[in-house]
Amino acid sequence: MEAVHRQPTAIISPVVDLLCVGGLSLIVFVPLLLSGRSDLVLIGAGAQAWLATLINMPHFMASYRLVYRSRETILRHKWASIYVPAILLLYIVVALWEAQSSPVLGIALVTVSSAYLAWHYTGQVWGMMASHSYLGGVKFEARERLLIRTGLRILLAWHVTWFLYTQLRDPSKVRPAYLVVSVGTVIAFGLGAAGLLLMRRRTGKLPPARALVAWFALFVWYAVLARDPKAIFWIQIAHALQYLAFPIRVELNRSVAAPMRRGGRAALHMAGYGVGLLVVSYLVAQVVPGTAMSVVANVFGEEPGRAAPVLILMFINIHHYFTDGVIWKISNPDVRRELFAHVQSPSGARPTAVSIPVGAADAARRSSRQPVTH
Questions:
Q1: Rounded distance between C-alpha atoms, residue 362 and residue 374, angstroms
Q2: Cα–Cα distance between 370 and 374 in angstroms, integer?
């Protein structure tokens, strides 16, 4: 009998997926935690800036590539492409004007971004678990899904409380809540483990290692943050790596599907895609902040000028979180087709109903309604 050759059931490859989804971060973070060190950043501000430019900023730009790649996608996602950026831009202008006398609006934007970040992190982890479980041929049922996602919501509450505890001038006001929610993370782990064990009892197997690593890695990330709040830098890098495989896969699938991009031309296109992300990331991360600081300082004064780079970063962060919640909608058949176009069933048919709530809290919420999911 002739062997049936199948494409690997992975986003990039099983090994690359495992490393990106959290495996690499576990290799680095677990030994650091076991070492007992209190300072987990290890590198200076200059190296941090370049790593952020090379890894973190491209994950923002890859997201923008998906929504701004054509007039059709821009018009399809008007809130993500036009309305929300316009609202944020207007808010920033007002915040810069107000910064001449008070930083309240700037602080409010940072707070909103940090709370949104907690939703974004936990939503993306659920998306990773759902997508990689689908690729592994298993799906979560309602009770399993409820247990795991309830645990992730507890981690969301921990993240928000952690932010307040580490950023308020008087952290004693939130210390009791922080301690309670920190204990709650143990419950969160137990709930998630219970959901995974229920799946094993029902199906005879656990989700693929990639899904398990994505779930476990988030607990380790937050243990790192609890040890050293400045290590948020490394968590951002780990989160960006976790995300990047997905827009890269969409770009690769679209490139291979293009009639004039077979073989070497597809590879050339992907090389150009990577270079383009890095060039734009360099401009946004290294050139724009300094230029914005100078321009704003000339218009509004020195104090707003110093605030300008931070507000620009908050603009990018919040817009990215919102954009992800729009472009990864499971209800969009184009998203399903583009992300999983390379995956074939044993019969050679393409999957027709899958869950793709990557990096999107609202998509993770909707995913439970789909006929074939995680």
A1: 15
A2: 9
Q: What digits encode the pLDDT tens for the residues 338-352?
A: 888 888 543 344 443
Q: How does DSSP assign 139-196, residue by residue?
A: ---HHHHHHHHHHHHHHHHHHHHHHHHHHSS-GGGTHHHHHHHHHHHHHHHHHHHHHH
Can you tell me the distance from the alpha carbon of 148 to that of 155, in angstroms, rounded to the nearest whole number? 11
228-245 per-position pLDDT tens digit: 999 999 999 999 999 999
Q: Cα angle vertex 62, ends 60, 64, to 5°? A: 70
Question: CA angle 265-270-273, nearest 5°?
Answer: 130
Confidence of residue 145 (pLDDT cuts 50, 70, 90): very high
Cα–Cα distances in angstroms (integers) from residue 367 to residues 44, 260, 345, in the given order: 41, 35, 21
What the block records as the tokens of 17 is 């997926």
What is the distance between the alpha carbons of residues 80 and 74, in angstroms, rounded to a whole number? 8
Percent of residues, the chain, with pLDDT higher than 90: 72
Q: Are 155 and 219 in contact (CB under 8 A)?
A: yes
Please report the pLDDT score of residue 356 as a whole number.
Answer: 38
Instruction: For the beta carbon of residue 202, count every other beta carbon within 10 angstroms.
Output: 13
| Residue 276, φ and ψ in degrees, nearest 5 | -60, -45
DSSP 231: G
- Amino acid occupying residue 269: H
Among candidates 149, 140, 114, 275, which has minimal Cα distance to 197? 140
In degrees and rounded to multiples of 5, residue 118 shows phi and psi of -60, -45
